[in-house]
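task queued by scheduler; priority normal; single chain, no ligands, no partner chains; default sampling; output format set to structure tokens
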Amino acid sequence: MLVLSLYAQYGLGYTALGAGLVITPVAAGNVIGALTAMGLASRIGGRATIQVNLAVAVAGLASIAFLGSAPSGLALAGPALALGFGLGGIIAPLFSTILAGITQAETGSAAGSLGAIQQLAGSVGVATIATLYTATAHPAARGLVITALAAVGLLAAGAALTLLLPPARGAGGPAEGS
């Protein structure tokens, strides 16, 4: 979202309000993805839900990267919605899947550690992606493409890492992989 906002302001010349409107589909998709994720996880399992949502986020980012040399704010809306939906649908099933194998006595410290790791990773990720964008944003659309493709690579690596997640039980369903 940060890079889309930067692109809208510096690449398209939008005001802060205009940039906010450009990233609104990401936020809307995030809410929809978050609201639907656990229902999907109860049907297909947490790991599969995470993988599906990562694929949706990758599709959104790849679409942003291949929109052309200077995509308009309107052209970004569909891919931004897909990106937000995919990202929104990852967190709840990820936390649920990771914490599924934790004993009751370890739940508090595990949840706290997971939250701290999420905050650290988010901080490092934002700094890295923002630095990449600003280093390559001449012209601004070039920075958008390079940053989107880098993020696609990171999400693809995340998808590969989901294979290491412990199997989780859906609501009333068998454990994944059994």
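post-processing summary
- The helical segments are 2-11, 16-44, 46-65, 77-88, 91-99, 107-136, 140-161.
- Confidence is low (pLDDT under 50) at residues 170-178.
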